[in-house]
TrEMBL record:
Protein name: NAD(P)-binding protein
Protein's UniProt keywords contain Oxidoreductase: yes
Keyword Phosphoprotein tagged: no
Domain NmrA-like: 4-236
Gene3D superfamilies tied to this protein: NAD(P)-binding Rossmann-like Domain (3.40.50.720)
Organism: Mytilinidion resinicola
Length: 307
């Protein structure tokens, strides 16, 4: 048993991971929150207070929302405090693609990754991993909710309306992993006795977009309407489609969401064409007995009998 601290524990992905850790009944868990919603209120601007809160902690899992930490100062302070408190392991707020190319809303992750490199080079070492599961498979079930906490979001492949937007000349390789599988792998990673890999790819399903569309047409019983966009148009910020995204993450305010939806779709398409969603499989290799939810089975079950 080890003592785990969850930073940003009121978030959706954090809640899924907490459920998996609680179900395992192996570890003591402390949840850090700005709001005092769950066990311990902390001030992320106060390193000394954070370090005191982290005394006796073995592993810190961060789920701090990037949009509320524009300079990543809260995560940097959390890293410094973890080192001061002799925390062994740290996982920053990642839980997505392998790179942030053309996704400015996630570019702040790069600053945290660079900071972790720097502190380890300076001798203040802390073991860390970047949990990267690709895109949540649950989003292909939109508008249906397939997880306890995760809010359904629509993507460039719209199963409900049997349509998709693809980049002309690019059959992007995507990684889709259910949020439950991510949570289960994180829980098992906490138990793992070996050294955590820095790049922590979690590959539930590695699949080209064309194959997803084939599955979609089969489980929906109707061809998808495909709209093709040019890479050069996307690079200029032009989205020449008849539809766009409609739902945004709950952490994004209504005013922000309106301006972000177009940018997010452009960014997902561009980053997909450039390989950002083709994540590695380090944790598949470390946990070879874990069985991931397969995309064919998941989509067939979700869309069975749906209009």
């Amino acid at each position: 048993m080890v003592h785990i601290a969850i930073a940003g524990g009121s978030g959706e992905v954090a809640s899924e991971v907490i459920d998996a850790l609680v179900a395992a009944k192996k570890h003591e868990i402390t949840i850090l929150s700005r709001r005092g919603l769950i066990w311990r209120t902390v001030n992320y601007d106060d390193k000394s207070e954070l370090a005191e809160a982290l005394q006796g902690i073995h592993t810190v899992l961060s789920f701090i929302q990037l949009m509320t930490d524009p300079n990543q100062q809260a995560q940097k302070n959390l890293i410094d405090a973890a080192i001061l408190a002799d925390v062994k392991r740290f996982a920053p707020s990642e839980y997505g693609s392998s790179t942030t190319v053309d996704m400015p809303w996630w570019a702040r992750k790069d600053a945290t990754q660079e900071y972790l490199k720097q502190v380890n080079e300076s001798g203040k070492t802390i073991e860390y991993t970047l949990f990267q599961p690709g895109m949540f498979l649950d989003y292909l079930a939109f508008p249906y909710k397939t997880a306890k906490h995760l809010t359904p979001l629509n993507t460039m492949i719209d199963f409900e309306n049997r349509r998709a937007v693809v980049v002309e000349g690019h059959d992007a390789i995507m990684t889709f992993t259910t949020v439950q599988d991510l949570a289960a792998v994180v829980a098992r990673a906490v138990d793992y006795d070996g050294k955590w890999p820095v790049i922590g790819g979690i590959s539930g399903n590695r699949i080209p977009v064309s194959r997803i569309l084939e599955i979609g047409e089969r489980v929906r019983g109707h061809p998808f309407v495909i709209e093709k966009v040019k890479l050069e148009d996307l690079e200029r910020g032009n989205l020449k489609t008849s539809w766009s995204l409609e739902t945004s993450h709950p952490s994004v305010s209504g005013e922000q969401a309106t301006s972000l939806l177009k940018a997010v779709l452009i960014g997902i398409l561009l980053s997909g064409a450039k390989g950002a969603w083709d994540v590695s499989d380090e944790y598949n290799q470390l946990l070879p007995d874990y069985k991931f939810t397969q995309i064919d089975d998941f989509l067939a079950e979700v869309w069975k009998g749906k209009p």
